[in-house]
Write a structure and sequence with these properties.
By secondary structure, the chain is an alpha/beta fold. It has a domain of about 180 residues: 3-Layer(aba) Sandwich (Rossmann fold), CATH 3.40.50.150. The strands form two sheets. Strands 3, 4, 5, 6, 7, 8, 9, 10 and 11 form a nine-stranded mixed sheet that branches. Strands 1-2 form a two-stranded antiparallel ribbon. Strand 1 and strand 2 form a beta hairpin.
Length: about 270
């Protein structure tokens, strides 16, 4: 372990999720810090799921650990290229709070955008996953939103090729009819749908609104590899009351108590 990576682990904060059901290690500064988006994509996998889930571009592993904590029969592979994030995920799995599921999580150090042969050599084989979740960078390179801090920019800004390499990697890693879950910016839904076309079908679109009278700021997408089923627009999920920063009961159940998305939005059961 390099000096920089060891320092990142030593100085990390310990953050509890799902009301203390698991703990993650995260850099205090200089990196993207996981939160709401990671928990929502984890909640899209029902508690009774039994199979292999890949968390693609896992960062420090929050989404994957949330899945393992909630889904007692799932095995999870965290796929991440950043050495510091990988070290933090490894260290988190040694914490007592995570003892109940740590043996069901593996870590693959691989670049999502690398050729398939390189990903396979790193440990992410073709058709290895029954389900795959991802929280890809939200911003396009041309938007000029990159942070001067490279790890933070890496987590927030897509490369010039956009979202397409992520969907290509997801299609490669999933078995036929495997399930995909993606959270993305609502105002870039068109780019995401274009990248899904020809690879995934049965697309379910769940808008996430900060407040009832705001525009949606995120979309949660479910899809099936190779499906020809039509797309569906699901009832939305709203996070906050109009004049408060507290969470509405449905969001609170997911974020604090580990509820599955289908428990608060039954239309998700059909994905």
């Amino acid at each position: 372990m390099s000096t920089a990576v060891a320092s990142a682990v030593d100085s990390a904060s310990v953050d509890a999720f799902l009301g203390g059901r698991f703990e993650a290690l995260q850099p205090k500064t200089g990196h993207h810090r996981a939160g709401l988006e990671a928990i929502f994509i984890a909640a899209a996998i029902e508690p009774g799921f039994a199979g292999t889930v890949v968390d693609l571009g896992a960062g420090v592993g929050v989404a994957g650990m949330a899945i393992a904590a909630r889904c007692k029969h799932a095995t999870v592979a965290l796929v991440e290229r950043n050495p510091e994030a990988v070290a933090l995920a490894r260290a988190a799995l040694t914490r007592p709070a995570n003892r109940g599921f740590a043996s069901r999580i593996s870590i693959v150090m691989a670049d999502v955008t690398a050729p398939e042969a390189d990903r396979a050599a790193a440990g992410l084989g073709r058709a290895a996953a029954d389900a795959l979740v991802m929280n890809p960078p939200f911003h396009a390179a041309e938007e000029g939103t990159a942070s001067p801090d490279l790890p933070r920019a890496d987590a927030h800004v897509l490369a010039d090729a956009g979202i397409d390499p992520w969907l290509r990697a997801a299609a490669s890693a999933l078995r036929p009819d495997g399930r995909l879950v993606v959270i993305f910016r609502a105002d870039r839904l068109d780019a995401l749908l274009a990248a899904l076309a020809g690879r995934f079908g049965g697309v379910a679109i769940l808008p996430i609104y900060p407040r009832a009278h705001s525009d949606a700021h995120r979309v949660l997408i479910g899809a099936r590899k190779g499906s020809r089923a039509p797309a569906r627009l699901l009832p939305p999920l709203t996070l906050h009351p109009e004049a408060a920063s507290t969470y509405l009961p449905e969001a609170e159940q997911i974020l604090r108590h580990g509820a599955g998305l289908a428990e608060v939005n039954p239309a998700w059961l059909l994905t």
